[in-house]
Amino acid sequence: MHVTSPAKENADDPWPKHHRVYLVLRQEILDGHYPLDQSLPNEIALAGQFGVSRITMRKAMERLNREGLVERYRGKGTFPVQAPHSPVQASISGVIENLIAMGLNTDVEVHAFDYVAASADIAATLELAPGAQVQKAVRIRSLRGTPFSLLITHVPQDVGQCFTREDLATHPLLLLFARAGHPATHARQTITAKLATPEQARLLDMQPGDALLCIRRVVFDAGQRPLEFVEGFYRPDTYEHQVSLGVKMHNDQQVWDT
């Protein structure tokens, strides 16, 4: 089994070498690149593939073992463990309905609920005057006790004043918009990848530098007014984003369409 080696050690790299090795091996295991009935290469072989010391490799393997991704058997070797399928799924199409359903079936903890002056970027996104007051909330969503998303929302002050911190802890935000007379009808979003900061890692029960799926979404009402800007950071081991594709004709050629 060939493992792509991470970059060589760099004095400016903030992450320990064993952490970067762990991230690559973890992804390989989760992707099913190692057969469950075969042992992984030994530490010496893996250290050679990654270009690291055996001590560095041992630290990475010890963490994989602690997290239940591998099992060690004396005299037999180290075997990958089949990881459970992602428990939370949501599709890009029909996102409004899926987010409401998610809110009704997951637990939320509100970590912060304040009114703050909007930054220049937030004000522009919500089409507000620079420095306008917005409601900012930070929430953690969990499924069966495991956190899977960190949501940071900014809402115009007049809309945010229609619900309380307690409301946000017990009702999906989209339903609170509708109750306030501002039903959401559509959204625009981008998806990218980020590395977890120490604070994000603490809230999501991860390690700093772990990969996160980052979704930025602007939610609108029927009058094209922005109701919310949300940044969502998702653990890729507990959440996956799905999209259904179809084929259509464009300029006499077949292309994929959502």
UniProtKB/TrEMBL annotation:
Keywords: DNA-binding, Transcription, Transcription regulation. The keyword Transcription regulation applies. InterPro entries: Bact_HTH_transcr_reg, Chorismate_lyase_/UTRA_dom_sf, Tscrpt_reg_HTH_GntR, UTRA, WH-like_DNA-bd_sf, WH_DNA-bd_sf. Transmembrane segments: none annotated. This is GntR family transcriptional regulator. Gene3D superfamilies: Chorismate lyase-like, Winged helix-like DNA-binding domain superfamily/Winged helix DNA-binding domain. Pfam families: GntR, UTRA. The lineage of its organism: Bacteria, Pseudomonadati, Pseudomonadota, Gammaproteobacteria, Oceanospirillales. Residues 15-83 form the HTH gntR-type domain.
